[in-house]
Amino acid sequence: MINEYVFVTVSLIDELEKINESIKKFSNLYKVFKYVVIVPEIEISKFESKFNKYNKVEIINENEVINKSDFLKICDSNLKNKKGYLSFRKNWYYQQMIMLSYCLDNNYYSNHNLIIWDADTIPLKKISFFNKNNEPYLYGSRYEYHCPYFEFNKILLGKKNRILNNSCIVQFVAINLEDRKDMRKFFIDFNKSHKIKNNKLFVSNAIIKALSLMDESLSISGEDFAYPEFIGAFILNKYKRLNSDQKVIKFFRNYVDGYLNFFQKCILYIFDYKHITYERYMVKNKTQDYKTLILCILKDFIYDKKNIKNFLKKVYSLKFF
What DSSP assignment string belongs to 14-35? Predict the structure, then answer.
């Protein structure tokens, strides 16, 4: 069963067509056990109408994973006196909590490996998610390194936890059942040590409590926690993985300024880009600029020292007359 994947994503109606395209791609690339889409209650009927032709798609009401009103109460009771709370991104944190809570809720456990996939991201080519020992590969990005995430992990995991060389925010996370059980135990133990109730909201309780423990001089108006960075750090430290295990993966996100045509996708495919992310602010009728596309490819090529070494070897091997 480990070769059959459960893909899970949290989505709003804006991402409906992107998810539809991703499901089609995944069905061609992998053995899919099911594709779980977690959505707001008011949007369930629209998602069900779109995906009723797929027997492997499961639509879940986000309130079944975490009741939003209960989550907001936790925020108010723990953070109302924190600097920047009036601008605290409750909806953004709520989505983070939904995803992590689904993964760690034993009601959703199965023997299938789980792939958390961002709703606005569309796969280009197959990604190896697990090694021969069924351990998830640790992928990294050079673009997403956000220091507050790593500082926040020190509160959760302890100051001695090791930090990966690159960000784990690559628009997906792969975890197996052992990872899920171990992380669940970690949060339950964290709550016990801080005398917090372990109920259905045990993940939210722990994260919000950790936010309340931040330095009083620091504002919580920004983004301090990201579940991919936590999961990556947890796997690195819990299983004593090496920093060298992390592999940089190429994807097209930061340079996206329009929707890509078939030829542009082919270019990225040839250069081994794994997926494309279309942010919510994208204008639907705007097309990707070729100059920006080539700039991204060149920048990634220069960053990759292996590419430079291989390129120089080829140049040196040439025979000039």
Answer: GGHHHHHHHHHHHHHHSEEEEE
